[in-house]
Amino acid sequence: MEAEPKYIYLISDGTGETATKIARAFLVQFKYPNIVERKFIEVRDKEKIDEIVRKAEDERPLVILTIADKDLRDYANDRFGQINLIVLDLFGYYISKFEEFFGQKARNVSGLLHRISDRYFEKIKAIEYTVEHDDNRSSRNLDDADIILVGLSRTSKTPLSIYLAQEGGYKVANFAIVKGEKLPDALFKVDQKKIVGLTIDPMRLYEIRKQRAKKLGLSNSSYASLSRIYEEVEYANSIFRQHPQWLVVDVTNRSVEETASEIVSKLFGRKL
């Protein structure tokens, strides 16, 4: 004969993941054969609580609450108490302990953790996009880019792109300027105000390339030739002059963090 079902209601103002994980951490200690979980997520008004209470009158569940808003939490406790259900108010119990520890009242704002999770996944998507569009790798879906960097080799395009993605959640594409080679046509079909040209002092670029060439064993390569570098810098600057809508940022002797902050400030009017 099948055991009578025991219901567990997981009620949250967010995704319900916290309530679910805590419930299952305890459920593994029991061998009851017929446990039914019902998850109610993004519960943020009294009408929804009343709807759940009506259902609970028949199923007589154990109620697990993770609701941040104190008024709504108190209302839920009261309504479920009226029909004599066991309620585990996880947020209410633990938040009071945190308030005692910090000596201040909690903000009691619903959905904060959910919003943090959303930002986290947005950054993951930004990083994936940025890696896919690094160093001329792809010119597909450039309309989706928040920022497009254009500059000579060794002007910090890749580290700057990754930093903007990780810290700001920006989708970044970057393209190298190579004298004698055309930039991709797709670059000129997107909003030109999202394009950033990276310029640099020729002597500083010479120092950077010289060190790079030494590491790679390219001491006789024209890659680090000062005359070639002067030509390349002038070529890049001529491209920037042809496109006055582009933001041009000088990366000479600047950290990635400083350059990224300037780009975000000038493009979006905000701090990184």
Question: Would you give an account of this structure?
Answer:
This protein is of the alpha/beta class. Helix content is 47%, strand content 15%. The protein is built from 9 helices and 8 strands. The strands form 2 sheets. The protein has a 4-stranded parallel β-sheet, sandwiched between helices. The protein has a 4-stranded parallel β-sheet with strand order 6-5-7-8, with helices on both faces. Helix 6 packs across helix 9 and helix 7 crosses helix 8. The chain is elongated and about 85 Å long. The model has no long low-confidence stretch (mean pLDDT 88).
Features:
272 residues; alpha/beta; four-stranded parallel sheet; 47% helix; elongated
In short:
The protein has 272 residues and is of the alpha/beta class.
